[in-house]
Amino acid sequence: MKSIAFAALAVLLLLPSALAMAASAPGPYSPSMHGVVAGFRLAGVEPDGDPLDQVVLQTKLSSSAGVPAVNMIVSSYLENFKPDTTPVLPDLLHPSTVARNLGGFLQGKALLTDDAGNVLVLGSFLAEAFLDNTNHAVATFYGPAPAYKTIGRLRGTFSLNKNGSLAGALQGNLRLTPSNKQQILRTRGAHMKPLKQIISVVTVVPHYYGTRGVKGSGPPLHTGFTHPKGSSNPAGTSGKSPSKPKGNGISVSTWVAGGAALLCLLLAAGLYIVERRKAPTGKSETASL
Asked: What digits encode the pLDDT tens for the residues 194-210?
């Protein structure tokens, strides 16, 4: 009986401290995300005619679960799908379902930095761009070499506004080292170095997601990252609007130019024949003189 009473007393004494520890323990990492499309340009055209854009996102993840607010820079390529080149892909956030109303696919590298732009962690970034300007995103972060262990996975959505700003929320986990957290706090409010210099530490190779063997003929679907002629580009971007891929037909101007060239050739041939016929007559008259 004495041992039972002692155990019960110990539990009562330790219970307050255990509850306090549980209350102070960080919850799940669920930062809000806001930022801008800081860079945008037409980079090329995929084999099926889909425009390929180079896109740089400059965002900040709010503090959450003991992790201070941190910058996330995304260097990526966006493939804009057309109605006849849209592939069948699973929804990134719901892999058992097919992504509907899909307008493009964004893939590249994600860099977590302090306010000065010093890179703390590198990772991968994928996002499906839908026609309503919403995006389903997945980011995975890795530790240093040579192990490259996964130290964070984030999933969530963000929306792109007409002025080029974006906002959303992510959920998952992220483990930063104490030195990383101290560096973030130490450089809070510092002037960030140029984005081109920050993203130069990674190399992004575009991945072809379109339908192979299909040559697109229609204009790209508007995913929110492309800006048709006449609309303003997002603040801070320097890209150009992608032009409509050229079709296989011959333009009217080509037919006109070809007809004019043929007419000139026929006139030249006619003049040559006339001159040839005149030449013998001229010689006989000269001989008689």
From this structure: 999 999 999 998 877 76
Domain residue spans in the chain? 32-199
Q: What 3 state SS string does the chain have?
A: CHHHHHHHHHHHHHHHHHHHHHHHCCCCECCEEEEEEEEEEEEEECCCCCEEEEEEEEEEECCECCECCEEEEEEEEEEECCCCCCCCCECCCCCCCECCCEEEEEEEEEEEECCCCCEEEEEEEEEEEECCCEEEEEEEEECCCCCCCEEEEEEEEEEECCCCEEEEEEEEEECCCHHHHHHHHHCCCCCCCCHHHHHCCCCCCCCCCCCCCCCCCCCCCCCCCCCCCCCCCCCCCCCCCCCCCCCCCCCHHHHHHHHHHHHHHHHHHHHHHHHHHHHHHHHHHHHHC
Q: pTM, whole model, 2 decimals? A: 0.69
The model's pLDDT over 239-279, given as tens digits with 9 standing for 90+, comes to 333 333 344 444 444 444 555 556 656 666 666 666 666 65
